[in-house]
Amino acid sequence: MSRDIGERVRLLRVASGRSQTALSESLGLKGNTIVSKVETGRMPVDRELAASFASALDCSVEFLMRPYEPGLATKPWLRAYADASAKVVEQVLGDNLLAHEFMSWSRMQWVPDILPLFDGDPNDEDAIESFADHVRSIADIPEGDVVRNAVRATERLGCIVLPLDSELGRHLGLSQRVNGRPFIRLSRAWNTDHSHHVPGDRQRFTVSHELGHLALHAEVPPPMTPEEAKRLEKQAHRFAAAFLAPAGPLLEDWASLGGRVTLSVLQQLKARWGVAIKMLVVRFRQLGVIDEDHSRSLYRQISARGWNTAEPVEVSNETPIWLDKALEKAFPRVTRDQTLSAAAEHYGVAAFHLARWTLWEVPPEVPTIIPRADTQAREPHPEVNAGKLIQMRPRGQRQQGGIW
């Protein structure tokens, strides 16, 4: 029993981003010896002590005393997060374990995991391109069509997409499997203090990149060297590019615009495909349309126009819907806040723990200002309006598992 309580204390503490010292201070203790002994099961915990921990951790005594079965979690490709705080990485991984247990405890109806696993040579770029097409078809994306909503396509494949409270160094996402379930953490449109906006094209590429890791590297351990990390990142990049902008249709659109790779053309392609202009430069380099000198020239032009920090053409941010719908079905109430409160009470924790997994929206007082395209686009596709990519459900696409 003491070991179960200790495991739960540590899980909730880590998922909340608190240190042993901070928890000890909340308990009115000097030093972290008692917290350490409780977490490792070396100190018996009676109900009175459990109540003190429950109060400090914003949970019920019953939650702490519940038998604990640790989830089997794969390690993310941590070398890629070498510039991130180890504490933040640990918090995200712990929060994934907590979220998985909550979802299992609440007996939510999981979306079937239908994400295929790559069994080819990950160094074969053509094989990755073909595999990305295969994944698109399984995600119910019409052949050659734009991915209207990359996050929801990822959910249709069975991935649990949860928000990331803060960036992992330069990275905007993280992926792993918990008891076999694929989890992706994705940065919100705005960071916690609203000082930095993540454009929709970055979000779309990030979630597709993490999808690539889950599909391509299921049997690959975390990289041990910078060279290994670079190789895995390049493979996930290639998958994301092919998933969002398949070669054939992209080249057809490019040819219809005159067959030249200019900033004007790239803006129009961005409005069509919902990917960054800089990503399109990489994509055309991958496909052999431009050479290294041409790509360097484009990067210089992009930098000169200030587009490294804010590209023209606004791409809508995306949010998942599975967890909200599952919560509404499992805990039907009048309002969303009431649903969260009922679910939290059922699980035995304060509602703010669950809010970490559902809070995506931008507060209304925070402006979403992004420069628009400064050139005249070609005849817009149905999903393009005044330079902004509007996420729409494709006509005729069927609903799958309650998620579009």
TrEMBL record:
MF terms (GO), sorted A to Z: DNA binding
Domain of life: Bacteria
Spans traversing the lipid bilayer: none
Chain ranges of the HTH cro/C1-type domain: 9-64
Region feature (Disordered): 371-404
Pfam families linked: HTH_31, Peptidase_M78
Chain intervals with Low complexity compositional bias: 393-404
SMART domains: HTH_XRE
Database matches in InterPro entries: Cro/C1-type_HTH, IrrE_HExxH, Lambda_DNA-bd_dom_sf, Rad_response_metalloprotease
Family, similarity comment: Belongs to the short-chain fatty acyl-CoA assimilation regulator (ScfR) family.
Name of the protein in its database record: ImmA/IrrE family metallo-endopeptidase
Origin species: Propioniciclava coleopterorum
